[in-house]
User: Fold this.
Amino acid sequence: MKFIDLDPIDLQLLNQLQRDASLSNQELAARVHTSPPTCLRRIKRLHDAGLIERQIAILNPQQVAQAVGHGLTAIVEITLDRQDADSLLAFEKRVTTDDAVQQCYQVSPGPDFVLIVHARHMPDYQALTKRLFTSDANVRNVKAFFSVKRSKFGAELPLSLEPSAKSA
Assistant:
């Protein structure tokens, strides 16, 4: 990943894509007042620089639940016995490869990690805890909170459209 300078058009593109990545190149170019070829070239540059990690569809959990059944979403706090760099990295690698783990944050102070996990039902969640937590001798404490309603979900990073102050 290389560093690139972002100008106001780059920031507008990133803001638009955060809100709706399904916009056509022509729609996106019109919204940021540039030509479609320039827009496409800039987006490729933002991808290549690693600023755009990937593009996904965000599903509505209530609508999905009607189609395939309700699931469990849990916010799980994990405290490890050993917090050396290797232990933290080993735990992080193991949990982030599991499909049930939607998000993983290493945090401080308090627990070492906070995970957002999704399971089909309680037996599925119990299998997840056995697979990820109880089988790991370094996991000292697991505290789970089960979501009863998702009031807000967002993935947008706040980007200032104002030029940033350059350091001297």
Q: What stands out?
A: Residues 4 and 49 are 7 Å apart (CA to CA).
